[in-house]
Amino acid sequence: MTPEEKALIMDSRIIDRVLSRIVHEILERTKGSQNLALVGIRTRGAYLAERLAKKFREIESLNLQVGVLDITLYRDDLSSVAHQPIVKPTQLPFDVKGKIIVLVDDVLFTGRTVRAAIDEIIDFGRPQAIQLAVLVDRGHRELPIQADYVGKTVPTSKREEVRVLLVETDGTDQVSIEELKPK
Q1: Among 34, 25, 72, 67, which Cα is nearest to 49's?
Q2: Over the stretch 41-67, which tens digit does the pLDDT of each residue have?
Q3: What CATH number corresponds to the domain at position 166?
Q4: What is the pLDDT of residues 125-169, one digit of tens each?
Q5: Fewer CB atoms inside 10 A, N or C side of the chain?
Q6: What is the count of structural domains for the chain?
Q7: Which helix or strand (DSSP H or E) is residue 29 part of?
Q8: Residues forming beta bridges with residue 3, ordered by sequence position
Q9: Strand locations in 61-122, DSSP E?
């Protein structure tokens, strides 16, 4: 199936505003905790975690530790994804034990990516808590996973795809819904 753009739901201005709101929500819920760390799921979740960390510095002068997970080997569909998957390094330059970890990803869909990320984090130690921040929640959960912080909830059909483009990987910031068309 090939995608065809159906609707633009966020531009760079809205994405920036949403990330600022998420930072304020995290600060309110955690009472400005110094015990926070951000962990982004590779690829776009990692860039969003860096952007959130920058906003924490700007808004509250908090320098949060930031890590990056590559969940490839933790996926429950690894054999169907690729015969020889490309695994990039996980970078957690801090001890997760006792920390409030805010896991960051671009789109929450079935919940399977988040489950894999939680499994990987716990392999590094036992955090005080793991919370989830996503730019877009599109529904269709297959696992009982819910985001604590959501930029935008976008009801979709299974024939649609939420496409997140970020400057760091794609040269532009935008989120769109695309209709999957048969080839």
Answers
A1: 67
A2: 999 999 999 999 999 999 999 999 999
A3: 3.40.50.2020
A4: 999 999 999 999 999 999 999 999 999 999 999 999 999 999 999
A5: C
A6: 1
A7: helix 12-30
A8: 180
A9: 65-69, 100-108
**What pTM was computed for the model?**
0.92
Q: For 35-160, where are the alpha helices, taking DSSP H only?
A: 44-60, 78-81, 112-124
111: confidence class by pLDDT, cuts 50, 70, 90: very high
Question: Which two structure tokens, joined as six digits, stand for 40?
Answer: 């982004």
By CB atoms closer than 10 A (0-12, 13-18, 19+), residue 138 is buried
- Integer angstrom CA distances of residue 27 from 33, 40, 55, 64: 7, 18, 11, 12
State the residue range of the domain holding 144: 2-181
176 token code pair: 């769109």
Collapsed DSSP state (helix, strand, coil) of residue 61: coil
Residue 26, amino acid:
I
